[in-house]
Amino acid sequence: MEAQSPGGTPLPDWHTLSAEEVEREVGADLSGLSTGEAEARLQRYGKNVLREEARESRLQVFLQQFKSVLIVILIIAAAASFLAGEPLDAAAILIIVVLNAILGYSQEWQAGEAIEALRKMLVQHAVVVRDGERREIDASGMVPGDLVLLEMGERVPADIYIVEATSLEVDEAPLTGESSPVDKAPGRLPAGTPLAERSNMAFAGTTVVNGHGRGFVVATGMETEFGQIAGLSQRVADETTPLARQMDRLGRDLGLIALGIAALVVVVGLLQQRGLLEMFLVGVSLAVAVIPEGLPAVVTLTLAIGIKTMMRRNCLIRHLPASETLGAVSVICTDKTGTLTRNEMAVVRVRTADTEVAVTGAGYLPIGEFLAGEKPVDPLADPGLRQFLRTVLLCNHATLALEEGGWRVFGTPTEGALVVAAEKAGLSRDDAPEPEKEFSFNSTRKRMTIIYPEGEGDVAHMKGAPEVLLARSSRVLRGGSVVPLTDELRDALLAELDEYASQGLRVLGAACRTLPAGIEWTADTVETDLVFLGFAGIVDPPRPEAAEAIRLCRSAGIDVIMITGDNPLTASAIARDLGLSSEGALTGAELEALGDDELEERLKTTKVLSRVTAEHKLRVIDVLSRDRQVIAMTGDGVNDAPALKKASIGIAMGIKGTDAAKESSDMVLVDDNFASIVAGVEEGRREYDNISRFTRYLLSSNVGEIVAIVGALLLGLPLILIPVQILWINLVTDGLTALALGLEPAEQDVMQRRPRDPQESILTRSAYLVILILGVWLGLLTIYVFMGLYAVDLDRARTMAFTGLIIFELYNVLNFRSFRFPLHRIGFFSNPALILAILGSLALQALVVYVPIFNAFLGTAPLTFADWGLLALLGLPVLLAGEVYKILRLRVRSGSPASS
Ligand code: ATP
Known about the structure:
With 900 residues, the chain is an alpha+beta fold. The chain is built from 31 helices and 28 strands. The chain folds into 4 domains: 14-52 and 118-235, Calcium-transporting ATPase, cytoplasmic transduction domain A, CATH 2.70.150; 240-314 and 684-744 and 761-895, Calcium-transporting ATPase, transmembrane domain, CATH 1.20.1110.10; 322-341 and 544-672, HAD superfamily/HAD-like (Rossmann fold); 346-537, Calcium-transporting ATPase, cytoplasmic domain N (3-Layer(aba) Sandwich), CATH 3.40.1110.10. Helix 4 packs antiparallel against helix 9, helix 5 (87-121) packs parallel to helix 25 and helix 25 (723-741) packs parallel to helix 27 (794-815). The longest helix has 41 residues, at 674-714. Bound molecules: adenosine-5'-triphosphate (ATP).
């Protein structure tokens, strides 16, 4: 079927048209649309979004809850009870089944909502021209006719007809499968040109990997090629986390154990010549007792709440497993610029072959002086300075604009700082001719060049790492004329460069060249035989909070390695400022010369890697992961995408990161701030601790139930707890307290322990021991309560056992708040949710014991005040024992009785 415009007329084959024809067709020109027109078009064409796959409906989510084996067992149990003439039992079980489904439904729906909310936060931005001005808008608001600016690293936001391109290359793999980047340039193409060869079009869903360009939006949303062929949505994949898989396995294992024990007990019971129906009920009770029904719900809810908490700490989790991996991170490889430093740059010194000047001023305000010594100078009167400033301004994409909050830079801060310096001198790019060609910057080249027509010929303006430029320069501008660059001057400049860098300044050089007529323009032919102009020293102060975060990492056993494209001396100076050792620092070139084993050894002590490229980052990950390290790696550029994918957790910068980096990451660092990564790690550790706390707590409760049931059976007593009562404990009272345990604040020393081993199971051997000891204790205590009463009044005896077990559990939950610290150390009231959960559980139990309808359903009978008192007294030692154990252990460990 031929594509149609919303008006019903067939859409043209855009690639066959000229730029003028496209302008006519989309009703727009190079001054962009007006805001009013854009709004009208948005109404007409709809938002620029791909149709989302419909989320599962509420009913579907609810019905899914009935798929588990446990539910099937319970429904059979209910049917059996009904047939055996116990309609109330049957109804009670069914009510619990529905309650379980409602709980499961609400937690799953909530988790879905959290993920949905995250998806919405991953909005894409695009730069368009509206009302004749450049504006950054949410890509969903783009309409056909919008004039879009495409920059390196951006995801193409719609289908675009290109009218201007400078070295524009696009990765079209998501659309065509073609893995190498495709060159894009304006100009009409013959009809029938296949999609993959339409070089005058940039398609939605592809990524700009080089250069920049402009073009008109010709199709948005589902009308784009991407929307039409795929109908795909940009969903964040719903992945399971390693922890969730561990939990699933645990659930399955417990299910099998449940069946085994239940079958065995039924056989024993039958041998004891008990009735078939009674034994059937015992079997069902046991199956219910073994499985921690509340656990999956509590885990999912805790993770969902955790994602929101991470977001508050500026860590936007893109893949669920990331929140867990974050807690296990053992080494963080971080960029310097913008992550450890503020990325608020300003040129403070400029060195040319003739002179050195200091530059004054504040922020991006383009007002300041050039001082030689103490004396102000006019930079435009000095030919060397003037040419230096002109070149860094022309070889530049940043623009400066006055906005409400002050001056703002569009573009990178490094380039912005250079524009500000040039404007302080009174230069402007307004009257510059259109550039003819560009060789873009990337962190491997460490330089960029833009060619402009000048007079009769063409001049290449270049900026980049000074040593890279010096190596390509044969001449220098000195005393207003171009003279050969002597070795002596080269060495003097390099020495001065080192001096700048040792002060932590970021140093950027400039060079230019009048191009000989008739040469072919390639990076190799153009970027050689240059005239060196000088370099600028740019300050980029370290973030104050980064030093503290690095200290925290050290105490938490996490290695921090600064991996930067910047100069080794600059990197080392900044590292020292931040309290990172610069000893044994390596450059990319040195790293290449090392074998894997040597590098592995060196990385144990090296904290600074400078002048590295994206390939070096990959190698570092390879070598570090030999040691089973859990590696967090930050990145922002297009080139960083492979490293971000390869690291255990790839972290893309939220502000300066490209779309390409964000899409390859597991987590986006909203504020680009290193300290937020560390906050995320702390949160990850807290979550993991809490999940292991409530898992152990719930399992100890299950052991208690099993011991009570099996023990009573072996002692020849009647069934001690009926299935509904066990379900009530597992789902309601334990569920509440377990959920509250998930909100436990981080332990005081959460960042003073070494990272956990990612292979380690959440249930260690000592965990099993604690679960077993406490479980057996609670089980025996429950039997004890039951034994004294069952012969007199079975219902009351069961109610005592039932209520007793709950009260014992409420003491027990306090044991699990910390595995190491007694309550007075963590604070009785430091988890208010748990206090509420305990009071809530008691209130619910009172309801069950005293309200007649619950008596009927849950087989309970009213208790006296003394009964409650007795149970409270009997349970107290459970807590006391835990406390005494922790206090003693702390004393033994610290070696001195006074220090705990
Ligand atoms: P980090 O890797 O910590 O973010 P970085 O920004 O210095 O630090 P790159 O972006 O890889 O790392 O830059 C490497 C070098 O390239 C810089 O030290 C600088 O000399 C040079 N450089 C950076 N930006 C530009 C630019 N826009 N144009 C020309 N050269 C640049």
